[in-house]
# Entry
Amino acid sequence: MERTYYREYFFFEQDNWWFVSRRRILLSVLRTALHRPHGLEILDAGCGTGINLDYLAEFGRVTGVDVAEEAIEFCRRRGHDDVRRADLTRLDGWRDGEFDLVTALDVIEHIDDDRAAVREIVRVTRPGGHLLVTVPAFPGLWSDHDEVNHHQRRYRGREIRELLAANGCDIVRFTYINTFLFPVAWVVRTWQQARRRLFGPPAHPPRTDFVDYHPVVNALLLAVFTAETPLVTTTGLPFGLSALCLARKRESAA
# Structure
């Protein structure tokens, strides 16, 4: 991700509709699947500016790790000292099976060797422990937002499921999220791609999708995205802008 965006995300994450809705959905998934546990050892892999560390603390003691020094600095501004700098493909500072829960929330799409990163986050998860992974979905939706955020790929659902399964995990829940707004995003991104093919790259540099929305628009988008929560935690959703996968490390993977 562009280093300058850490500052923007630090402020956006508190109130922006996408971040708030995603947090609500993820916490609901964890509460439902894990039956509201306490006292877990948790690793937030690719913790960014650290806002999720606050919310994951509901389930136990949280450690953060990120490769970017800028991210670590913002985590400390939020009051988080148990945050380390490391490449997710080499989590040498942690033992095998050290954590009950590992989260990688919109992280592995940034990593060249996503297989190595998944191997490592599975390694530090205890047998029987859980991993929660979210990634951007559908390669056909590639946009300036992916470019700015230095995404290496967007995923098909089977790809993220197979990646976790190949590393000794059983899939507990798979679903897409941000489904209700998918048609709008599909139209916008299809138009952007067509315009680029017809007229070439736009004059302005690539821009992230995260902007400072008017409070009314922000509240409306938040309500639409958050309304997916009951479906995400029960039947699941068949398509969406992101994919969510909750997995359990097999006991035999010890």
About this structure: The mean pLDDT is 91. The CA atoms of residues 17 and 219 lie 7 Å apart.
